[in-house]
Design brief:
4-stranded antiparallel sheet; Arc Repressor Mutant, subunit A; 23% strand; Jelly Rolls; DNA-binding; 2 domains; homodimer; 226 residues; alpha+beta
Amino acid sequence: MPKIDRTQILKQSLIFSGLQDEEITELARLCSEKRLAAGEYAFWEDDSPDWFYLLAEGKVKVVKHSSTGKDFIIAFFEPGEIFGEVAVFENRPYPASAQAVVDSVALGIRRGDFLKFLSRRPEVALRIINVLGGRLRTASGRLRDLAGERVEQRLARTLLMLSSKLGPSLPFTRQDIADMAGTTTETAIRFLSGLNARKITRSARGKIVILDELKLKLLGEGPPPL
Amino acid sequence: MPKIDRTQILKQSLIFSGLQDEEITELARLCSEKRLAAGEYAFWEDDSPDWFYLLAEGKVKVVKHSSTGKDFIIAFFEPGEIFGEVAVFENRPYPASAQAVVDSVALGIRRGDFLKFLSRRPEVALRIINVLGGRLRTASGRLRDLAGERVEQRLARTLLMLSSKLGPSLPFTRQDIADMAGTTTETAIRFLSGLNARKITRSARGKIVILDELKLKLLGEGPPPL
DNA sequence: TCCCCTGTATGACCTATATCATAGTCTACC
DNA sequence: GGTAGACTATGATATAGGTCATACAGGGGA
């Protein structure tokens, strides 16, 4: 994994872009670089919230474990996105674990440093409000889906949600999809086999390509009201 | 419903308490009073996000409808809490509907006015970040529960969550509980009948009193690992 | 007062989906 | 190049809990 350019990363991130150069430099000094091998954790659920993270390279998933041993994937994050922020702002333990999916690099900022920086930068606070708002909106949709829709709809919507963020080619396993939709790997496999047979998707090991978004949307809507 | 004292309401709210008197006065001028009869809606899902609300009196529930017709209750709000903020910050349609459960009064602030006020008040922005963070934390817990826990656990946890916020006496119907836990009214009724029989709760029409929180917690944890 | 509507209660049935089992296939690492 | 482990695949079976039907009680409005 090559050396990264911190100021470049910061400038390109959603929440810090638009800051003055000297502010970026100040931030860069506060950052420390965390290299995570695939599978390694940035933090675990219930750890104390010492660090706020900005993903520089790679891919990170945020996972919550349940009493039955089944994992639920809250979100995947791409470079430029922040994670761990909820715990930092509330000063309460991380509500979930963050695990690198591939070799990754994150910029970590200490809780205190970040809060101090933030209190003097209302624009950044507003950006964060926007990010959190977006996540809450997504979460409320998913809550409704998990509570009221059947697996087929949930799976279809999960794929659509991912493709709206990442494009039609999705680098996820059936298990990932299952853990996001709140179902089992077997069910996700069966569902995707069906989609492949109907040419709605094409998929290989760890990869799903959406061919017919329209049909998938129809599936996500549920059976036509009779 | 009696006349309300706006400045008093604002001062006692989580996000505006601590502001200077003249700031409160300024805010009070921006507010308009919305009286909602029981059952009336402050806004509907997909409405355009014109107003930000602070509940002054009464009780409001935020509900998301699903394609199957089943409702899911995202949250109940008490006086002093804000709602509708996600839509306002993102300038996108409200993600859910807000309905008064009993006769209520809300203070509404126009989107533009509120954002202008906010951009000059970083402390308020930080408070809002905290509120949103808390809601996200709650949401991620509920997501995990809906995805991985069985109804019995979900119902128990729903009751516990409510009692930690409101105390042991809960003014909710079985249907409310079901719509929060993502199950059916019948299942919620059966569950609560069981709890009553075991003296863990005592309940009447539209009311549930938790008698034995400890036993309820055990139920929420799930069956002891064998 | 009476009536209707909402909330509570309970039983019978049914199905969506989890579980369990088994197997083949790819790939990353030794 | 071989091998272990992750990923995909598919069938058989079990069951949690949703669905449907019926009934009754309390409370608020006419």
